């Protein structure tokens, strides 16, 4: 078996791993690169393999950095099935349709700037083709035959709804090679999704390390911090902007707000807006998969109690709805995308509020290098919004205990659930995060570790089994 790294190698985004087993080639994830460079340019670089040669694609979860380049495979002749959990399939449809819209806008913008036509990376038609390829639904724990002597099993990764770690096994006579792709891993100890549940052993583990060198503050502390920010901002008469990721964080925060609302936490007259059509659509998907949740939400959904909606919450679907939020004169909480301020409706709210020292911007998720979100978190005093240099007056804070990503402690706990593999391959992390994690891995007895370069291939030696 041979594995090659065509994305998320020494960086976080663009997950894309090629597995060659005998004559068959499989791809695990085909995500978008997100960062400083021009989106279309960076993502239209050669994939590093021919999609026509792929037998199947296995998808860990619906985040754009894992599914965002799937339509390019179809455009370049991939004919096989895409294998994913049903929840991942449903969420991927939402994420890719949104991506196609953003890419179309981006292409228009480039055309306007350069004066000549620039085709978008892919279109809605390509997204529909992609969605038709989701032919094999995966259930956690079920063995899926990929080819003669090769099979795959999906395991709950606890990161977002439907998220999976995927183990691929190749057998040949008396020997066997088992490789596990962690996918993105969730943190444990939350009353939302179930905790990650990896298989007992693998020969090789390819592991994400987004927060490999850091620990989050606890979830309880983080919810306390969020309450404080809201109370203080409302006391000043300001608004709270929360850039959210449409999948997962939004629903988790709505669930929390609904609880706080019933406890009388929010002052009279205050409003909460969910200004994201994509988040509204994905909330609907969440409600279809009760079994994925931890006990509390599962029970609510089973009893047909809606865990995400309440009177104080306004859903704003159309852009007119979105503009109407501006008429509000304070004491509002606005949840909108994008989570890293790389576009989306939050940009308009930010443009309006950036001068307002009474308002706050509260980040609840990872901010990738090169994004406006990261600039602000790193303390920039002036930033560019819609091409204009603007001074930053609104108050900024980062609460990382809501992260959908495991921190160093969670990652080590995940490792402890398995026997020690022959080799650990670290991916999906910035350099210092991976180096930080490499240093602590001996704590769990993992000693053979490598950090592959982009496009590097590693040949795995099979294990003899009796
Ligand atoms: Zn993810
Ligand atoms: Zn990711």
- The amount of beta strand, in percent, is 15-25%
**What coarse outline follows from CA principal-axis ratios?**
globular
Q: What is the share of helical residues?
A: 25-40%
CATH homologous group name of the largest domain = Ribonuclease Z/Hydroxyacylglutathione hydrolase-like
In the predicted model, the low-confidence regions spanning at least 5 consecutive residues are none
What is the average of the pLDDT values? 93
Question: Can you characterise this structure?
Answer:
The longest helix is centred in the first third of the chain and has 29 residues, at 86-114. Strand 2 (17-21) and strand 3 form a beta hairpin. Strands 7, 8, 9, 10, 11, 20, 21 and 23 form an 8-stranded mixed β-sheet that branches. Strands 6-5-4-3-2-1-22 form a 7-stranded mixed β-sheet. The chain has a 6-stranded parallel β-sheet with strand order 14-13-15-12-16-19. The mean pLDDT is 93. It has helices spanning 39-43, 64-67, 70-75, 86-114, 124-132, 219-235, 249-262, 277-286, 295-302, 319-324, 346-353, 372-377, 408-416, 431-440, and strands at 2-5, 17-21, 24-28, 56-58, 82-84, 136-137, 143-147, 150-156, 164-172, 175-181, 204-208, 240-243, 271-274, 313-315, 332-336, 360-363, 382-385, 388-391, 395-398, 423-427, 449-450, 457-459, 463-464. It has 2 domains: 2-214 and 404-464, 4-Layer Sandwich (Metallo-beta-lactamase, Chain A), CATH 3.60.15; 219-402, Rossmann fold (3-Layer(aba) Sandwich), CATH 3.40.50.10890. Helices cover 30% and strands 21% of the residues. The chain is of the alpha/beta class. It binds zinc ion (ZN) (2 copies). One zinc ion (ZN) is lined by residues 15, 63, 65-66, 184, 428.
């Amino acid at each position: 078996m041979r594995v090659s790294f065509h994305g998320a190698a020494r960086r976080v985004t663009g997950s894309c791993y090629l597995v060659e087993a005998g004559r068959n080639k499989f791809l695990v994830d085909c995500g978008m690169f997100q960062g400083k460079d021009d989106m279309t340019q960076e993502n239209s670089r050669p994939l590093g393999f021919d999609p026509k040669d792929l037998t199947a694609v296995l998808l860990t979860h619906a985040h754009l950095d894992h599914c965002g380049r799937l339509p390019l495979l179809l455009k370049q002749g991939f004919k096989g099935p895409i294998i994913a959990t049903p929840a991942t399939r449903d969420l991927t449809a939402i994420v890719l349709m949104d991506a196609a819209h953003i890419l179309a806008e981006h292409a228009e913008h480039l055309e306007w700037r350069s004066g000549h036509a620039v085709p978008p990376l892919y279109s809605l038609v390509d997204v529909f083709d992609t969605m038709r390829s989701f032919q094999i639904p995966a259930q956690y724990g079920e063995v899926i035959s990929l080819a003669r002597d090769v099979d795959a099993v999906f395991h709950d990764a606890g990161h977002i709804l439907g998220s999976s770690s995927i183990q691929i096994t190749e057998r040949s006579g008396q020997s066997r090679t088992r490789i596990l792709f962690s996918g993105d891993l969730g943190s444990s100890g939350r009353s939302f999704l179930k905790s990650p549940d990896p298989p007992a052993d693998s020969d090789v583990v390819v592991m994400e390390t987004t927060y490999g060198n850091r620990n989050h503050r606890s979830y309880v502390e983080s919810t306390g911090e969020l309450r404080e920010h809201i109370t203080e901002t409302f006391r000043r008469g300001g608004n709270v902007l929360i850039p959210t990721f449409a999948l997962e964080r939004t629903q988790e925060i709505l669930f929390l707000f609904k609880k706080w609302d019933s406890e009388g936490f929010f002052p009279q007259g205050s409003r909460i807006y969910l200004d994201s059509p994509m988040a509204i659509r994905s909330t609907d998907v969440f409600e279809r998969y009760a079994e994925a949740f931890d006990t509390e939400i599962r029970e609510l959904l089973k009893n047909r109690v809606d865990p995400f909606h309440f009177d104080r919450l306004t859903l704003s679907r159309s852009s007119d709805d979105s503009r109407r939020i501006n008429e509000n004169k304070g004491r509002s909480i606005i949840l909108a995308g994008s989570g890293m301020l790389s576009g989306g409706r939050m940009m308009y709210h930010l443009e309006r509020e950036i001068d307002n020292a009474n308002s706050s911007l509260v980040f609840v998720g990872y901010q990738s290098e090169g994004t406006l979100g990261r600039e602000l978190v790193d303390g920039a005093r002036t930033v560019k919004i819609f091409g204009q240099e603007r001074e930053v007056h609104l108050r900024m804070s980062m609460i990382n205990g809501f992260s959908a990503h495991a921190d160093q402690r969670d990652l080590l706990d995940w490792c402890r659930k398995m026997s020690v593999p022959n080799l650990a391959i670290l991916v999906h992390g910035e350099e210092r995060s991976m180096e930080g994690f490499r240093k602590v891995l001996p704590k769990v007895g993992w000693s053979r570790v490598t950090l592959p370069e982009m496009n590097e291939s590693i040949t795995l030696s099979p294990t003899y089994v009796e």
